[in-house]
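To the wet lab folks,

You asked to see what we're planning to order before we commit. Fair enough. Below is the target structure as tokens, and below that is the sequence we designed to fit it. If anything looks off to you, flag it before the synthesis order goes out.
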């Protein structure tokens, strides 16, 4: 199977190679762009309308803008019992907590997956983005794992989730290079904790409360060999890049190749400093290599570009949802 995948283009590895090349190439410092905010908003609107192709690169900041926050009021609403018992203060750190048993650990993960994968985000930011680009030749590469692009209507054949999907499990057995849909299990595990669906079909906490465990019989096991399952999230070399992942990686590579010399907008939204070599740095490299290309960086407090591509760049500091409203 590995040799079969090796015969396909690998957009993920190609992006990382471009990113590493960018790190070595851009030595002249950073810029916050040129022109006023109003001018850049109008320029971004024009580029979306006139570009031959749009490559969207999305990071956690886009989901944060959409209200998928991992701490604060939203965390307290669904995880107050975990917070009180274990001192966990946010969903991210909770994913690494050494729970006392599998029944408790999988109760946590059922909630984490459900509220970040199987319901729409609180704010329609992804839908706004789709409305802006749905008539264009676009492709999306993202490090997000919450599936919100497909929830908003984006074509799944134009999406590449590089770091995994909350909706998938994988076996702990390294020889099984497959993933397993977990939606049915998640719904059962939520019901087992006492969550009840409201009139809109969304699980809510009843007045009687919920429990922090699932039955031992509900702990997920691999359908192929009965081994324990884990999340399909890139944490180390055990991450399973399955058939769907390789197909999306090849599609991304093909899209980049077909548009590398055209008027292409590399539209980066909410990409932070955790994984810049996957999206941010490759976008810089591809913009620098193509005089027809434009790089747009929409980010909260981190909107910048290399000085070498300053004239080809649009930098907009602010909330993604607000700025998408302004380029309507």
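Sequence we intend to order:
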């Amino acid at each position: 199977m590995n040799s079969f995948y090796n015969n396909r283009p690998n957009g993920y590895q190609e992006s990382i190679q471009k990113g590493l090349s960018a790190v070595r190439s851009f030595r002249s410092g950073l810029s916050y762009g040129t022109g006023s905010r109003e001018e850049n908003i109008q320029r971004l609107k024009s580029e979306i309308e006139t570009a031959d192709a749009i490559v969207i690169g999305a990071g956690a900041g886009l989901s944060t803008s959409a209200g998928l926050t991992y701490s604060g009021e939203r965390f307290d609403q669904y995880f107050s019992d975990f917070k009180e018992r274990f001192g966990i203060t946010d969903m991210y750190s909770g994913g690494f907590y050494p729970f006392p048993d599998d029944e408790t650990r999988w109760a946590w993960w059922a909630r984490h997956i459900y509220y970040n994968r199987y319901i729409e985000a609180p704010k329609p930011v992804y839908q706004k983005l789709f409305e802006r680009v749905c008539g264009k030749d676009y492709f999306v590469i993202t490090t997000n794992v919450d599936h919100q692009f497909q929830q908003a209507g984006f074509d799944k054949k134009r999406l590449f989730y590089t770091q995994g999907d909350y909706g998938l499990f994988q076996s702990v057995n390294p020889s099984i290079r497959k993933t397993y849909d977990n939606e049915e299990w998640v719904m059962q595990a939520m019901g087992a904790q006492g969550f009840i669906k409201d009139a809109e079909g969304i699980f809510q906490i009843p007045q009687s409360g919920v429990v922090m465990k699932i039955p031992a019989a509900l702990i997920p096991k691999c359908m192929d060999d009965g081994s324990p399952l884990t999340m399909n999230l890139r944490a180390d070399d055990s991450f399973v890049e399955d058939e769907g992942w390789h197909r999306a990686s090849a599609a991304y590579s093909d899209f980049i190749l077909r548009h590398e010399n055209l008027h292409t907008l590399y539209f980066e939204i909410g990409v932070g400093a955790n994984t810049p070599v996957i999206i941010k740095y490759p976008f810089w490299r591809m913009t620098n290599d193509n005089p027809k290309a434009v790089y747009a960086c929409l980010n909260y407090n981190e909107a910048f570009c290399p000085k070498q591509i300053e004239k080809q760049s649009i930098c907009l500091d602010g909330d993604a949802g607000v700025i998408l409203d302004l380029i309507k």
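Structural context that might help your review: The first helix runs from residue 2 to 6. The mean pLDDT is 95.

Thanks,
Computational group
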